Amino acid sequence: MTKPQYFMSKYADEMIVRYADEMIDDKLQGDLSSVDIATKENLENLVKVGEDLLKSPVSHINLDTGGYEPVKDGGTYEEALQRFAKLLSEERKLLQSNSAPAKEEEN
Fold first, then answer.
1. pLDDT at position 21
2. Tell me: the pLDDT tens digits for 15-47?
3. Which UniProt keywords apply (predicted)?
């Protein structure tokens, strides 16, 4: 298994960003969906959408109904992003510690 495949399979349950992306698409309508409208009001509304999304429960799509359902013990998107960031940081440290001796051997 290559490293990218390993990474994706190892963290498949933590890939909440894709669900957040789908959920945010439902909330971005009208001026909020336009990348060309950079008014103060529109930007403030975008911040509000993002803050609301962070406070909402981690959800997945029910394939039978097509609706979103909270993930049991999933917490909020903010908590899930913090957990995911910690996992990425730990993975990076592990990769760096594993590659450090190899660099020393080359010299």
1. 57
2. 555 555 555 666 777 888 787 888 999 899 989
3. Lipid degradation, Lipid metabolism
Domains in the chain, number: 1
Task: Residue 101: count other Cβ atoms within 10 Å of its Cβ.
Answer: 9
In which domain, by residue range, is 56 found? 3-106
The whole model's pTM is what?
Answer: 0.63
Cβ–Cβ < 8 Å for 80, 16: yes
Q: What is the DSSP string of 39-100?
A: -HHHHHHHHHHHHHHHHSBPEEE-TTT--EEEPTT--BHHHHHHHHHHHHHHHHHHHHHHHH
